[in-house]
Design a protein that fits this description.
Layout: H1 2-10, H2 15-22, H3 24-29, E1 46-49, E2 63-68, E3 71-72, H4 75-93
Antiparallel strand pairs: 1-2, 2-3
Helix pairs in contact: 1-2
């Protein structure tokens, strides 16, 4: 997704337009009224980044925290779980 937003900006969209294309636009297209924007009563999925993606779309890659359904994700535990799944999959191939 980060690469796609970067390509959209290189193609001429503003960073704001690219962020909209990755968030609110798909939510509206799929009629997911509970997501796609930060507002009261919405789902509360949020990616907090270091930097300002409105001025530099590459800032989306520097993730500080993630919330899903209003609950902050333990990114260290998630990364460990993904690494374990990858290790298990690699062992099954051998």
């Amino acid at each position: 997704m980060h690469g796609e937003m970067e390509l959209l900006v290189r193609a001429g969209l503003t960073p704001v337009e690219a962020l909209h294309a990755a968030t609110a636009a798909p939510a509206a297209a799929f009629r997911l009224d509970d997501r796609g924007q930060i507002a009261a009563g919405k789902r509360a999925d949020l990616v907090l980044v270091n930097g300002n993606p409105i001025t530099d779309i590459h800032a989306t890659r520097d993730i500080a925290a993630v919330w899903l359904g209003g609950v902050e994700i333990d990114r260290a535990a998630w990364k460990a779980s993904v690494a374990k799944q990858n290790d298990d999959a690699a062992k099954q191939k051998n």
